[in-house]
Automatic annotation (TrEMBL):
One of its GO terms (molecular function) is serine-type endopeptidase inhibitor activity. This is Plasminogen activator inhibitor 1. Belongs to the serpin family. Forms a heterodimer with TMPRSS7. Interacts with VTN. Binds LRP1B; binding is followed by internalization and degradation. Interacts with PPP1CB. In complex with PLAU/uPA, interacts with PLAUR/uPAR. Interacts with SORL1 and LRP1, either alone or in complex with PLAU; these interactions are abolished in the presence of LRPAP1/RAP. The ternary complex composed of PLAUR-PLAU-PAI1 also interacts with SORL1. Interacts with PLAT/tPA. Also interacts with SORL1, when complexed to PLAT/tPA.
Length: 123
């Protein structure tokens, strides 16, 4: 686990979160040395759910979310399928016993329905 907080107590945590990225964490890790310290943390639990559609689309996976473009014919030859939702739920719990983290991902596949038939046979 990696724990970071502003050195000065009067500096809000938001000041750190505004500049925090993978490159800064990598730089910090490169400058670390081993030292004996007593770390006191309150126990806490955090949980969040993330919609993965936009990140997957940013990676170029767009067709699977579009009923008219998705091709899952190798999964089912009966229905035209597409991904209607992609979600990830993560949880971290820190207590006296240690840290437990879990993650679950759900991909909801839906069938494209035939268009509703409307018959206009009256004046």
């Amino acid at each position: 686990m990696f724990i970071a907080a502003p050195y000065e107590k009067e500096v809000p945590l938001s000041a750190l979160t505004n500049i925090l990225d993978a490159q800064l964490i990598s730089q910090w890790k490169g400058n670390m040395t081993r030292q004996l310290r007593l770390l006191v943390l309150p126990k806490f639990s955090l949980e969040t759910e993330v919609n993965l559609r936009r990140p997957l689309e940013n990676l170029g996976m767009t067709d699977m979310f579009r009923p008219n473009l998705a091709d899952f014919s190798s999964l089912s030859n009966q229905e035209v399928l597409y991904v209607s939702r992609a979600l990830q739920k993560v949880k971290i719990e820190v207590n006296e016993s240690g840290t437990v983290a879990s993650s679950s991902t759900a991909i909801i596949v839906s069938a494209r329905m035939a268009p509703e038939e409307i018959i206009m046979d009256r004046p």
